[in-house]
Specification:
single chain, alpha+beta, seven-stranded mixed β-sheet, 7 strands, 21% helix, globular
Length: 145
């Protein structure tokens, strides 16, 4: 069973905002002649990395709710003596919307077990993707979707 990462998406207002920021990062990397890949830097290297890479995702908390996820392609160690960063999650470019799931703020990242992860919006519940995020979260909490 895959293991996931749960992370706050600080300063981002929506899934669209996150997508725009990531598109700008990719474009900036191409212009600078660097490899165009999405990397999220963090201080801690997951001890359970082998359970995450290839099958796990990073679930983004935006405005108090898990709203989307991105597959984790690989986890790179960064051995830079000048930097406090020690790890980079290399992410798939596709953002997958999830059913909104309320989450309290936390620092850093947390492991997220597969059974605790919110399902994708395109997981087959008819009309669910058209619901406002807060309404979908409330209906899900009530067990109605």
């Amino acid at each position: 069973m895959p293991l996931h990462i749960l992370k706050m998406c600080v300063g981002v207002d929506s899934v669209e905002d996150l997508a725009e920021r990531q598109a700008r990062r990719l474009a900036d990397a191409r212009r600078a002649g660097r490899k165009a890949e999405l990397r999220h830097l963090t201080r801690s290297v997951p001890r359970r990395a082998e359970q995450i890479v290839g099958t796990g995702s990073i679930y983004w908390i935006i405005k108090g709710f898990v709203r989307c996820r991105q597959g984790i392609v690989r986890i790179d160690r960064i051995d830079d003596p000048e930097s406090t960063k020690r790890c980079a999650f290399v992410l798939h470019r596709r953002l997958v919307r999830t059913f909104p799931q309320p989450r309290k703020p936390h620092q850093g990242w947390r492991y997220l077990e597969a059974e605790d992860a919110p399902p994708d919006l395109d997981s087959g519940v008819a009309g669910a993707s058209e619901l406002p995020p807060d309404m979908a979260a409330e209906l899900r909490a009530l067990g109605l979707i």
